[in-house]
Specification:
The protein has four domains: 105 residues; 261 residues, no CATH class; 66 residues, no CATH class; 88 residues, no CATH class. By secondary structure, it is α+β, with helices and mostly antiparallel strands.
């Protein structure tokens, strides 16, 4: 009897001792990230059949239970990946928001200052001081655009660094998880004896992984976890881990991409393939905001330079020469894939250049060009639309125009040759003033009108304007128009030309040169020249349109240049320079606010999920302190049982003496 009682006390003592050790373990690790509360689960030992009934034999430890809920763990990981991605996105986009919206260092003040200089020059008859002020304003505008683009370039370099750091961290965590899988498999001999601390470590590493990329977790063989990312690419399978790689884009060596490594080969993953976490956040930021903002800024710069040059070239400078290009128009960025076939002197490789030809048709998109062995296929990346194909000639040359961008092909293309075309990405960086002297500003119009004093009627002719057609098909000047009272016609228009007549009601019609009627208030346009005539001419009255031989004091062209500030030159003629920039700032600002609000909501959701998880897995120090007392008492009670068993045994021995 005393031996049985001693054994019973011993089992209770061991159970209480294990419970005290487990409680102490909980208390010691209460502040360790990822630690899950543990408890000793006891079970009754097998009873002894005495013939008259079953006699208890004490207790046994059936399990050291770890309190962890897979459903709650999954919620926390998902919330962590989402929140980390949004915070990463917000930390980047707020830099652009602050940059563009700044009232002193943004583009708007520089653009307004430049056009104020243009308008002041028109108001001051193109005096030398006003010319100098206008040229200085142009330099300020160019510097501001270049500075903004440079700052965006710094942000882009920071994104590249974030990608490299995130890929390194993901690979490290993948390796750790694979090693923990192996250790857990070695120790986990049965479901009732799991290595709790190793399981906690693995869960914590998986949670840390989700701070960098959203990971999908599925149970594997032998208590292992299988981790996949992106579109199902495995990162960890059992004891094996796979690697990501940060590498330069094949078509843009300044752009860091993420690749999935299998053996010695690396497959580049699309930016949208990886979501969540810091990596997913910066990739999404680069695609949705940084690329868009830099291209939009470049579009404004190219549109400004393109339209200003067109009008400037219609004027005369201070020396009476035709106006030249005032601003540099940046060519499109064209990146040839490093995998394209290499050429030789006799058989040159394929080449592609591109240039914006119409800013109003730009679609705010990049283009992928691929040669399929016969023709080039052009895909617009913003909507993944196949926008056309072009087959090169026998000499390898071809030309293709879409969305206001002209593509020029040369060389000998090979199958699968690929190019990336970004029409406006370099627009701001390459924006610069080409005029280097105030005398080169073409303020004057190239034509001048006059009337002889011998005219008998009251009709007058306007100063006249010219359009871009004047450069391509200018009339032979002077042109002398005469009024024939009998027919009511204006004669003298260039033979064979078509004259566009817009009457005072705004009604337009095209008329042959020999049949043009005079009408008070009508505008007559031919070969890029437009004049408006008012009043009532007398028979034989003449009106002369001649070349302007001097640009001094004439401000008609500079006035036309000033009107570009309010001209609709983007989005199919619906947006001005100012409104296009305002739209860009608004889009970035709205997206910044959206990401900020979503990040705040994500943090609240993460806190809720973490709280729910802590309710199950967390260590409550008050509860553990109470458990210490409880198990201490159990230990003391079991010791008392053993003490009594010893006393009984001593009594039995004394009887035999």
């Amino acid at each position: 009897m005393s031996g049985n009682l001693l054994a019973i006390g011993k089992t209770g003592l061991y159970a209480a001792q294990a419970a005290l050790a487990t409680t102490g373990h909980n208390i010691a690790n209460a502040n360790v990230a990822g630690f899950s509360r543990q408890t000793v689960v006891q079970a009754t030992s097998a009873a002894l059949d005495t013939g008259v009934g079953f006699l208890g034999t004490g207790t046994q430890i059936s399990q050291i239970k770890r309190y962890s809920d897979n459903f709650l763990n999954t919620q926390v990981r998902s919330a962590q990946a989402s929140t980390s991605g949004l915070e990463s996105y917000y930390s980047q986009i707020k830099q652009i928001d602050n940059l563009l919206a700044d009232t002193t260092s943004g583009l708007s003040p520089a653009m307004q200052g430049f056009f104020k200089g243009v308008q002041d020059m028109a108001a001051n008859r193109a005096s030398v001081p006003s010319r100098q002020a206008m040229l200085s304003g142009a330099e300020t505008l160019a510097t501001r655009l270049q500075d903004l683009d440079s700052r965006l370039g710094e942000i882009r370099a920071g994104v590249n660094g974030e990608i490299e750091a995130s890929v390194t961290a993901i690979n490290t965590y993948g390796t750790q998880i694979a090693k923990l899988n192996e250790q857990i498999a070695n120790f986990a001999s049965s479901a009732t004896r799991p290595p709790n601390d190793l399981l906690d470590q693995r869960d914590q590493v998986v949670l840390e992984l989700n701070k960098y990329v959203k990971a999908t977790v599925t149970p594997g063989d032998n208590s292992s976890l299988t981790i996949s990312i992106g579109n199902g690419q495995p990162l960890v399978v059992g004891n094996d881990s796979f690697q990501l790689a940060a590498l330069a884009s094949p078509t843009d060596l300044t752009r860091m991409e993420v690749g999935y490594q299998v053996g010695s080969k690396v497959a580049v993953l699309p930016d949208g393939a990886l979501s969540g976490g810091k990596l997913g956040g910066v990739l999404e930021f680069r695609t949705e905001t940084l690329d868009t903002a830099q291209s939009a800024l470049g579009k404004i710069a190219i549109g400004m330079a393109f339209e200003f040059n067109q009008q400037h070239q219609l004027g005369l400078d201070q020396n009476g020469n035709k106006g030249q290009a005032f601003f540099n128009v940046a060519p499109a960025f064209v990146g040839a894939s490093i995998n394209n076939a290499k050429g030789t002197d006799a058989n040159p490789a394929a080449e592609l250049t591109a240039q914006v030809t119409d800013p109003s048709k730009l679609m705010d998109s990049d283009y992928e060009v691929t040669f399929n062995g016969t023709s080039y296929k052009v895909v617009r990346q913003s909507d993944n639309a196949d926008v056309g194909t072009v087959t090169p000639g026998a000499d390898g040359t071809a030309k293709f125009e879409i969305d206001g961008v002209e593509f020029n092909f040369s060389g000998n293309a090979r199958n699968k040759d690929t190019f990336l075309v970004r029409p406006t990405i370099n627009g701001a960086a390459d924006f610069k003033v080409l005029a280097n002297d105030v005398s080169q500003i073409a303020a004057a119009a190239p034509i001048a009108t006059s009337m002889p004093l011998t005219n008998t009627g009251t009709a007058k002719i306007s100063e006249g304007k010219v359009s871009k057609d004047f450069l391509s098909s200018p009339p032979t000047l002077p042109v002398t128009l005469a009024f024939d009272e009998t027919s009511g016609n204006l004669t003298g228009f260039p033979a064979g030309s078509t004259v566009t007549v817009v009457n005072s009601k705004g009604e337009s019609s095209d008329v042959a040169a020999a049949n043009v009627k005079f009408e008070n208030g009508s505008t007559y346009s031919f070969n890029g020249v437009s004049v408006t005539m008012t009043g009532k001419p007398g028979n034989g009255d003449k009106f002369t349109i001649a070349a302007n031989n001097s640009g001094v004091g004439d401000t008609r062209n500079i006035a036309a240049l000033g009107e570009l500030q309010t001209k609709n030159i983007f989005n199919n003629g619906t947006a001005t320079l100012t409104s296009a920039y305002a739209q860009m700032v608004s889009e970035v600002g709205n997206k910044t606010r959206e990401v900020q609000v979503n990040a705040q909501a994500g943090n609240a959701l993460l806190a809720q999920a973490t709280g729910a998880q802590a309710d199950v897995s967390g260590v409550n120090l008050d509860e553990e302190a109470a458990n210490l007392i409880k198990y201490q008492q159990a230990y003391q009670a079991s010791s008392k049982v053993m003490q009594i068993a010893g006393t009984i045994f001593d009594t039995l021995l004394s009887i035999s003496r």
